[in-house]
Write a structure and sequence with these properties.
This protein is an alpha/beta fold. Helix content is 29%, strand content 33%. It folds into two domains: 4-74, Sun protein, domain 3 (Alpha-Beta Plaits); 80-261, Rossmann fold (3-Layer(aba) Sandwich). Strands 10-9-8-11-12-14-13 form a seven-stranded mixed beta sheet, sandwiched between helices. It has a four-stranded antiparallel beta sheet with strand order 2-3-1-4, with helices on one face. A three-stranded mixed beta sheet has the order 5-6-7. α7 (201-214) links the parallel β11 and β12. The protein starts with a strand and ends in a 9-residue tail after the last strand. The model is unreliable at 265-270 (pLDDT under 50).
């Protein structure tokens, strides 16, 4: 691969919590985006575009001398075994899929949900135990569509993907998924057996009435994107909507949960 010089704009931001920033960065067509703890490093191939990006978002610019940056970036994405059934690997990885596991393609880029984040992996672990065979599923805020693809591998009868980010909807569509630009409001009432949503906490709670509306009685939801410290708030809101907590998965920082809903006005034992 050709070695090139890069211009890096460093922003004090957390990309996964700021959809406006993500959409704005797409306007500049960066060569790559690197998420750090409290920073986002945006890579460009020319200084003029980097300066324009820094001027809009208030970032600082640094230079990286010519190197094979694509190979180095790809090296950061290594295969991951998740749960007991999934094997996440980038498209360029030629390692064979371990016996007994199903391969999911990690697709890094401008669209959130490439597969490397803990919340995605927690959702996959919960999906394994949800018995989704023949279910009708909706992946709301689908990103690259990796959760929908996992649900297909586990045997759902049909799945629909949606995202308010047009780039995400297009990316999911390119992956062969039925996807549209929009949100759960466009999905028919009572038509879904399984909701998948890996979204920031505020978005999850705002969409909770829509999730409840589209679920059929006995339907389930796998939700993530909230911190461990936010579990109490999320679980209170879902309980108030008539949902029962069936299972949860935790890391040191992040949480995901599987819920069951048995119909308006009725609670259930999971």
């Amino acid at each position: 691969m050709e070695s090139v010089k890069l211009f890096v704009v460093t922003l004090q931001a957390i990309l996964e919590d700021d959809e406006t920033l993500l959409a704005g960065l797409a306007d500049f067509d960066p060569a790559g985006i690197e998420e750090r703890d409290t920073e986002v490093a945006v890579h460009f191939l020319d200084r003029a575009t980097a300066e324009a990006c820094a001027a809009r978002f208030g970032g600082s610019i640094s230079e990286i001398e010519p190197r094979n940056w694509a190979a180095g970036w790809q090296a950061q994405w290594t295969p991951i075994a998740v749960g007991s059934r999934f094997y996440l690997a980038p498209a360029w990885c030629e390692d064979p899929t371990p016996a007994g596991r199903m391969r999911l393609e990690m697709r890094p880029g401008l669209v959130y949900g490439g597969g490397d984040h803990p919340t995605t992996q927690l959702c996959l672990e919960l999906l394994e135990q949800a018995n989704v065979s023949q279910a009708a599923a909706a992946d709301v805020g689908c990103g690259t569509g990796i959760l929908a693809q996992a649900a297909i591998l586990l045997g759902v009868a049909r799945v629909v993907c949606c995202d308010i980010d047009p780039d995400a909807a297009a990316e999911a569509h390119r992956a062969g998924l039925p996807a549209f630009e929009g949100s759960a409001g466009a999905i028919r009432t009572g038509s879904i057996d399984l909701v998948l949503a890996n979204l920031p906490t505020g978005n999850l709670l705002t969409l909770l009435p829509e999730f409840t509306r589209i679920l059929a009685p006995g339907g389930r939801a796998v939700l993530s994107g909230f911190l461990c410290e936010q579990r109490g708030m999320v679980y209170r809101e879902t309980a108030a909507a008539g949902w029962t907590l069936a299972a949860e998965r935790l890391t040191d920082e992040w949480a995901a949960a599987l819920f069951k809903w048995c119909g308006r006005g009725r609670l259930s034992i999971a």
